[in-house]
Amino acid sequence: MSEEVSWIVSPELGAVRLDAFVRRCLPHLSVREARSAIDEGAFWIGKRRGKKGDRLAAGDRLSFRGAAHWLATAPLPRPDLELIVRYEDESVFVVDKPAGIATHGFSGRESRSVANFLAARADLRGVGRSPWEPGLINRLDRGTSGLVMAAKNQASFDALREQSKRGAIKKNYWALVWGVTEEEGTISVALGHDPKDRTKMAPAKAAKRGPLRTWPATTRFRRRLSAQGFSLLDVEIERGVTHQIRAHFEAAGHPIVGDPVYAGGRPDRFALGRQFLHAWRIEFGDPKTARPVAVESPLPDDLKRVLAELGMPI
Fold it and tell me: Which helix (H) or strand (E) holds 165?
């Protein structure tokens, strides 16, 4: 799918670089995205393909001939995505996200996400804090399966966000970890971006140099089963920080099985290809009536297989 759009360079912008002009025309693109689109051949100056370092002259015609996702300012609808809606009313969606798809993207390049699915179900433009995260109240990593909640309107979004800030939205996860944990426990360790790898989170105490923004985080767990040196935990969090459960259990010496980032050097013994982490229950107050609502998701087949191999099916 492609679309052709064009712009004329005005006299006051003569000699502007192509990548700078593209960002003026499509301000929703980051610098990196604008340059990627140019490298893909999405922009033409007259009859020749543009390069990011090209200088434009007044009166030049810049034409866009690339993929439509570069023009998107919100998630593109994907009615063909077959996700399960576990709960829906006039205010809220609760969707069961399989492992392997994102909760949302940061540009139109992401086309397989919960946000793309929701865009095909309802008009959520203007709901939430970012056009790329329409109505989303919670988020799951690509490799985590389970329940994702989205508000259908701004009033519901604001009410649910307030519940989240108060810790009134309860989220439970099944997690299989290495080692035999205590029967129950609480991990209260603030997290921040790892100074050596900004894509990871790390306990705040690990950052000894330079300023590091941190977020308080509390993870509670109860051991349900253990076998062959592994523990199946029912984990509960309230507000939630990026990678909270994964980073907390690695720091506690019990990394999540299959985790490609926070495995603590342990192999993916069961060839899962993702972390054994499933958001199985979410409980919240109805945004309009305050009526308590609880939604559950069954454990996916790939995780059931691992438990069966260990002799501890649930």
Answer: helix 154-165
Report the domain count for the chain.
Answer: 3
Close Cβ partners of 24 (under 8 Å, ≥ 6 residues apart)? 13, 16
Three-class SS state of 204: helix
In 10 A of CB 249, how many CB atoms? 28
- pLDDT for the residue numbered 264: 84
Which domain CATH number covers 65? 3.10.290.10
Q: Catalytic annotation on 141?
A: yes
Range 260-289 average pLDDT: 95
Q: Do residues 272 and 289 both lie within one domain?
A: yes
- Domain containing 219: what range? 167-314
* pLDDT tens digits, 27-79: 999 898 999 999 999 999 999 999 988 999 999 999 999 998 999 999 999 99
Closest CA to 13 of 48, 62, 72: 62
Would you place residue 108 in the very low, low, confident or very high pLDDT band (cuts 50, 70, 90)? confident
State mean pLDDT over 254-260: 97
What is the structure's pLDDT at 314? 75
Out of 54, 96, 141, 302, which one is annotated catalytic?
Answer: 141
> Which of these three, 166, 184, 199, is where a domain ends?
166
